[in-house]
From TrEMBL:
Belongs to the RNA polymerase subunit omega family. Transmembrane segments: none annotated. It catalyses: RNA(n) + a ribonucleoside 5'-triphosphate = RNA(n+1) + diphosphate. GO terms for molecular function: DNA binding; DNA-directed RNA polymerase activity. InterPro entries: Pol_omega/Rpo6/RPB6, RPB6/omega-like_sf. This is DNA-directed RNA polymerase subunit omega.
Length: 101
């Protein structure tokens, strides 16, 4: 999966919905879910390093915390992950307004 911007063929995005805008809404909602999950995961990992009595040495010497942060910075952006999942049919979605008709 690429970790930078990629040019996409728009005709690939609307194959499963027959509507480009509906596809983009699905991708955006999935990207928000991924972003929230990553944020929670990062906060839980970084909270292990939190202490009530931080001193200057601990702030500068905490290599593990820096490595965790660098790992998350190198990860692909949530939007790229969501688009990849959508194009590979790994996202479940439904449109209730279409189902009622």
């Amino acid at each position: 999966m690429p970790s930078t911007t990629v040019t996409r063929d728009l005709r690939q995005l609307d194959k499963s919905t027959d509507n480009l805008y509906e596809s983009l809404v699905v991708v955006a909602k999935r990207a928000n879910q991924i972003s929230n999950n990553i944020k929670e995961e990062l906060h839980s990992k970084l909270s292990e390093f939190a202490s009530s009595n931080d001193n200057l040495e601990e702030v500068f010497e905490n290599r593990e915390q820096i490595e965790i942060s660098k790992h998350y910075e190198r990860m692909p952006k949530p939007t790229l992950i969501a688009i990849d999942e959508f194009l590979n049919n790994k996202v479940y979605f439904r449109n209730p307004s279409k189902e009622q008709g």
